[in-house]
Amino acid sequence: MSRRNRGGANTTFVNNVRGPTSALTSFLNERGIRRANPAPAPAPPPQAPTATVGEEEEEEEGEDEEQSSAASSTPPTRTTRLTRGRTIVTTTVATSSRVSRSESAKKDGDNQDVNKEDGGNDDDDGDDDDDDDDEDYKVQRTSVRISIRSTRASSSSAASSSKAAASKADATSSKKRPRKKDSLSDSDNPEDKDFHDITGYVQRSNFSHKGRMPQGSNKIEFCSRCRARFTIRAGTKPAVDEDTGGLLCPTCAGSPSPAPSSDQKARPVKRLRRKIQKVEIENQIPSLQDLCIKKIANCIEDVEAFGDISDISLDKICRIISRNRSLSDETVRLFLDPRHYDMSLYDCTEITPVGFKNIAYLCPKLRSLKLKFCGRINDAVMSLYASHLTQLTSLSLIGPILVTEATYIKFFEAVENGFEKFELKHSARFSLKTLKALCENCPNLTCLRLGDCNMMDDEWIEPIAGLTKLRSLRIRNPGRGRLTTEPVVKLIQAVGSGLEELELKGCVDLEDAILVDAIRPCCVRLERLNIAGCELLTTEAVENLFKDWSTNRGLNYVNLENCILVGDEALKALTSHSAETLETLSIKGLDELTKEALLTIARCENLTTLDASWCRAMDDDVMKEIMDSAPKLMNVDVWGDHRLTECCVSRKGMKIVGREGDYLDLKFI
Amino acid sequence: MAATTTENEYVTLESSDGFQFIIHREAAMLSGTVRNMLSSAGQFTESTEGVIHFRDIKAVILEKVCKYWYYKARHLNSVTEIPHFEIEPEYVLETLMAADFLDT
């Protein structure tokens, strides 16, 4: 992102990355709104307090050069030389105060940059530490790591920070001199909260990885020549460009010719042209897929013309047509054949009740029926299914908004004992009464999936507890305050012994007792566990669940997405319990995990899919370690893992999705 | 640069039953999948040699797809009425699957 900014103005420093500020940031800056300064108010500066703002700004600039290894030439040489002597003395203190302040205000960065030359911008942060903070903590230009720690650890110790530096920094932070005093005195915690209200910022985990990182951790820098991001491994020194003094990535260091830069510049233009071209094409000429689908719709009358199609390709074709949203009453007839036992239609938006009825008339032997987005299915169709599809054992409906309570009950009474699998999502009319009818009429149900049912609450749990043959239970997104811990604990204690799969995704009100009192003692056969989005579950509970859980032989699917309180110990316990069996793991959004815990994922040798998005401690080293130990690993999601660079190793057939570096170029096109 | 353009003006597409289709690079680039194969940054054989093997697409279908690419390339910026592109019903399903794969 940084590379695209040619204007120089309106830039900010975030994690060593410079780019245009967001609309919100510029708005806040414009209005003079900024986060309060967590550090105590600094005392007046030792040098003449009457110095003008302009001069002070130039001092700041000079100091930046002082800290940087770059020898970029900036115009105000006089002031630079003047201030150099002074800043050498106060460098460490200045940085510490600046860090503490800059946690709150990004404004200084903006103002400084307005005055800076482009070249200086690119080269001058050679010494800077990379920043592991959450996005809200924007530490800029931190050259002394220790000083950061001290400011974080005790803000009182930062009080000793030099008066000169602090007030100087403040002067630069707001150009309007008169405002300066106000902003200083205002900078208390209350204002801090106000800021959060304004921005709608939600407190997540209020800590930095910086303190937890081992001392010799890797740094990420930008190459001064090709602008690519690269990792400086701990203890090694990167190559330095002889001409400009900037750092060089391994590729550029190997090939001294600056040729690739011209390539880099040429690329976006090409892409842009291509994109425009693409839009034009799509406006004029229909895609081959559309042509084919149209042809299918036209020729649907004589299905024989298509020849024999295997079930697998038929399903594939169904997916393609659904993806194009072209499954209609006409096209669906391609998939209707009296010999079929299973049917899955992936997008029934366009299918009318007549089309749904045709399914029952033309495929009377259906055992399993899955209809996605079946918004137009109604009572008449459901009654027809109940009377005609006598062999139906599995029904899956997504979004049946028109079907009423009474029809569900009639349907369940008709299908009776044979019914094994029922899935229902996004239904506002499915009520406790219908659920009771389901549980009474279909005691042999092995698989029950209820998602986004608006009426779901604690009372629904009791009838489900009577389904003793359940092997798979999924309850998803019951809504806040609808489903509480106690009934769910009872439910799992009743049916848990048979469960192979348990999903409680988005049951936000569930507490630790679920894991410790219900799942651990009861779910001995459990293989798949999904507790994504259960925000109240703590590290201790997850750790207690997996620690010495000898009754369970190991899980192969675990989803801990967005369980924001879960930390290191939990992941360590999980990876040691299910080391041999785990195949799919999602730890998306577990912000507090550190490198140490992430490295334990390497114990899982059979891992095939890993979602480690927003685990900010994830870096090239950890990824390499995991990849080396898990030969079957094929899919990795790494959205928002900013320490992972494009240099991280990959192998044939492996998909790494969401690497920041892969999208840098696309962002501005 | 001139030498490389002449060299790369054509690409070779090979079907599952061994037929080779040598077509203009520009036309082949109309497919999202082929474009990614030919322009990916890594040193893949597809991008270095300009030969792509499609193990799942038969010659009849690949020919149809190539025809479509040329049809599209020709009428890309035309202002006159575009003629209909004819697909035989017996191939339409396989063509659909190939088109889906090739992002065409």
TrEMBL record, chain A:
<dbReference type="InterPro" id="IPR050648">
    <property type="entry name" value="F-box_LRR-repeat"/>
</dbReference>
<feature type="compositionally biased region" description="Low complexity">
    <location>
        <begin position="145"/>
        <end position="172"/>
    </location>
</feature>
<feature type="compositionally biased region" description="Pro residues">
    <location>
        <begin position="39"/>
        <end position="48"/>
    </location>
</feature>
<dbReference type="InterPro" id="IPR032675">
    <property type="entry name" value="LRR_dom_sf"/>
</dbReference>
<dbReference type="InterPro" id="IPR006553">
    <property type="entry name" value="Leu-rich_rpt_Cys-con_subtyp"/>
</dbReference>
<feature type="compositionally biased region" description="Polar residues">
    <location>
        <begin position="8"/>
        <end position="28"/>
    </location>
</feature>
<feature type="compositionally biased region" description="Basic and acidic residues">
    <location>
        <begin position="100"/>
        <end position="119"/>
    </location>
</feature>
<feature type="region of interest" description="Disordered">
    <location>
        <begin position="1"/>
        <end position="215"/>
    </location>
</feature>
<feature type="compositionally biased region" description="Low complexity">
    <location>
        <begin position="68"/>
        <end position="99"/>
    </location>
</feature>
<feature type="compositionally biased region" description="Acidic residues">
    <location>
        <begin position="54"/>
        <end position="67"/>
    </location>
</feature>
<feature type="compositionally biased region" description="Acidic residues">
    <location>
        <begin position="120"/>
        <end position="136"/>
    </location>
</feature>
<dbReference type="GO" id="GO:0005737">
    <property type="term" value="C:cytoplasm"/>
</dbReference>
<protein>
    <recommendedName>
        <fullName>RNI-like protein</fullName>
    </recommendedName>
</protein>
TrEMBL record, chain B:
<comment type="similarity">
    <text>Belongs to the SKP1 family.</text>
</comment>
<dbReference type="GO" id="GO:0006511">
    <property type="term" value="P:ubiquitin-dependent protein catabolic process"/>
</dbReference>
<dbReference type="InterPro" id="IPR016073">
    <property type="entry name" value="Skp1_comp_POZ"/>
</dbReference>
<dbReference type="Pfam" id="PF03931">
    <property type="entry name" value="Skp1_POZ"/>
</dbReference>
<dbReference type="InterPro" id="IPR001232">
    <property type="entry name" value="SKP1-like"/>
</dbReference>
<keyword id="KW-0539">Nucleus</keyword>
<dbReference type="InterPro" id="IPR011333">
    <property type="entry name" value="SKP1/BTB/POZ_sf"/>
</dbReference>
<protein>
    <recommendedName>
        <fullName>Elongin-C</fullName>
    </recommendedName>
</protein>
<dbReference type="GO" id="GO:0005634">
    <property type="term" value="C:nucleus"/>
</dbReference>
<dbReference type="InterPro" id="IPR039948">
    <property type="entry name" value="ELC1"/>
</dbReference>
<feature type="domain" description="SKP1 component POZ">
    <location>
        <begin position="10"/>
        <end position="72"/>
    </location>
</feature>
